[in-house]
Amino acid sequence: MNPTAGLEAEDFDTLDNILDDLRERFEETPQWEFCEGFMAALVCCRRAIPDSEWLPMLLGVDEGDTPDPESGSFADDAQRQQFMDLWQRRFDEIKLALDTPVEALDDDNAYAPEVMDVRGAIASLPPEERAEIDDSEIPSFAQVWALGFMFAVENWPDEWAAPKDKDANKWHDLSLEAVVALTEDDTDVPTLSALSEDGPPSVSEERLNAYGEALWAIYDLREIWRNIGPRVAQVIKQATPGRNDACSCGSGKKYKKCCGA
User: Fold this and answer.
1) What is the tens place of the pLDDT at every residue in 217-230?
2) Considering the entire predicted model, what is its pTM?
3) Measuring CA to CA, how many Å separate 61 from each of 22, 23, 64, 72, 135?
4) What was the pLDDT predicted at 1?
5) pLDDT of residue 34
6) Could you give phi then psi for residue 157, rounded to 5 degrees?
7) What average pLDDT score do residues 89-112 get?
8) Closest CA to 209 of 110, 141, 258, 160
9) In 62, 97, 191, 241, which residue has its Cα 20 to 30 A from 197's Cα atom?
10) What secondary structure letter does DSSP report for 236?
11) Residue 109 has pLDDT above 60, yes or no
12) DSSP of 213-227, one letter per residue?
């Protein structure tokens, strides 16, 4: 298998299985769709966030934790390595997609998030099975993905502070607003199928439009930080004493006869 290739369906199944296993030991482990949004934010982030920072934030697992099947950690080193390998492949895939110019979101090279149409899946069930499901807590299309993205933004606020450039600042705010819009419920009447042409109506036209706007916003955010670059820590230079001033080391000598010699 090519380690740099994009993920296939069975790879996402493997990730789901690992997350399910982790959830047995740490109940706050998120679904992959949330992880997908979180990852997209890491790709767009101004600074490259290391594993040691995002692993405990996302999964409750410290990078240096010894695998322990009885705790919130990975079950063993092999499971950790498998997860991290798949994570890196998907990260590289998203990064390549966002760095590749596209004219339309249906371009084969465009970024296509791994999102689920849960409402569509429920609508496809037989009536008697649908009746048994309480759909009051069913997330709207791409809502979990957007929540994952904003979770990363909120946990690294310094890296997501608006740029000083006026135009970049405007695009930054508008782009984040487009993602935030997807964190809200789709309360309009579903008239379209989210992921297929012939599926049952599961999403409103407004929601699909908002989804498209959010994806373009991700491209804009990636471009903004690529152009500006990472934050540079401010260096405060202390004033150098004059040659005849007392030396700052506290020796009592003149600077020119002490540290300035």
Assistant:
1) 999 999 998 887 66
2) 0.83
3) 10, 12, 8, 7, 32
4) 45
5) 98
6) -60, -35
7) 96
8) 141
9) 97
10) -
11) yes
12) HHHHHHHHHHHHHHH
